[in-house]
Each structure stands twice: as structure tokens, then as C-alpha cells.
Design a protein that fits this description.
With about 180 residues, the chain is α+β, with helices and mostly antiparallel strands. About 20% of the residues lie in helices and about 40% in strands. It has helices spanning about 5-20, 30-40, 110-120, and strands at about 45-55, 65-70, 75-85, 85-95, 130-135, 145-155, 155-165, 170-175.
């Protein structure tokens, strides 16, 4: 049997391509159940206080999400990282960056992306490297409010919108030119 080297290389390349698992991008809520279970193994009273990614896509999905949980009893936080709806890491006892629980009433990240575009953020569905952050703000002034922040870095500029996380209403829009 006479197999050419090119056929062998092609067969090996195809086998490697098929055997490498594809990572599915998901919304912020997709792995929430798994992340919460992991956080509550760390501390039973852990509550979700922050959700973020710096590697989001224009459709509001990302390969990885970071969920920050706060334990009121321990007065400590943990970050739970997920990928493909599975917990990949729990980093315990990190600095407390947010302590107010998010609650359950907020738009998912795909709806935050749609709201950002509605309010003038120039991101295409296929865009990558979009920052998403969900957090309770305004606590220092006694008016806690849940916000989504959607940020895009493009060349020598940055554009972002801060949205009401409950309904997607625009709170503010920022444009920054680096040069």
C-alpha cells in the first residue's frame, strides 16, 4: 500500500482536530448553579456579589466567567471560575471587593449586550474581548442598585455603558480616547 506523506499528515491533523474539545461560550447565568454549589462548599453562607469576564463576546457570552461570593460569617470572599458550565477553580479568601448580594432579579449577560448596543455601544455579535461586570453599586450613598457594565476596547479608545441590571436602561455612557 502506497500512502503519501500528505495523506498521513492530513489524517493525523483531522484526528487531532476532532479530538480537541470545543469550548462552548455561555451567558453569565449558565453556570450559576454550579458556581453557587462550589462557593457554598467553601462557606455555607456564601452569597453572590459580583459576576465578570474580560473575554466576553458581542453576544453576551464568554468562555470563562468569574463569580465572586461573600461569606458574611467568615467576612471573606472567594472567586469561582467556570468554563463550559463547570467549575474550574475556586480561589478562596480573596480580598473583599463587594459584599452586597446580587439577588436574582437581573438581566442575563446576553440581554445586557443587547441593551448596550441599543444604547449606542458599537459591538458586533462576533466581537471578542468585551468586558462584562455585574455588581451592586451606590452603596456608599445608601441607595444600592444593581448595575451591568459593558466595555469594549478598540484600538486607541474604550467605550462603555453602565446599565440598570434589572431592565437594561442606560445609566451612563463613557467614551475614552487614549491618544
Amino acid at each position: 500500500m502506497n500512502s503519501s506523506p500528505m495523506r498521513i499528515v492530513s489524517a493525523v491533523a483531522l484526528a487531532l482536530f476532532v479530538s480537541v474539545p470545543a469550548h462552548a461560550a455561555d451567558t453569565a447565568r449558565a453556570a450559576l448553579k454550579e458556581a453557587t454549589a462550589a462557593a457554598q462548599k467553601w462557606q455555607a453562607d456564601a452569597v453572590l456579589t459580583h459576576v465578570s469576564t474580560l473575554m466576553g463576546r458581542g453576544d453576551g457570552k464568554a468562555d470563562n466567567w468569574l463569580y465572586t461570593y461573600y461569606s458574611p460569617g467568615a467576612k471573606k470572599s472567594a472567586i469561582v471560575t467556570t468554563r463550559d458550565k463547570a467549575v474550574t477553580e475556586v480561589t478562596a479568601d480573596v480580598r473583599n471587593t463587594s459584599t452586597h448580594p446580587l439577588g436574582a432579579e437581573y438581566l442575563d449577560s446576553d440581554k445586557a449586550a443587547e441593551a448596550g448596543v441599543r444604547h449606542g455601544l458599537q459591538i458586533g455579535k462576533g466581537a471578542k474581548g468585551i468586558g462584562y461586570g455585574l455588581v451592586v453599586g451606590n452603596t456608599a450613598v445608601g441607595k444600592p442598585q444593581l448595575f451591568w457594565s459593558v466595555t469594549q476596547m478598540a484600538g486607541e479608545s474604550m467605550s462603555s455603558v453602565t446599565l440598570n441590571a434589572g431592565d437594561g436602561a442606560l445609566i451612563k455612557r463613557d467614551e475614552l480616547k487614549f491618544k
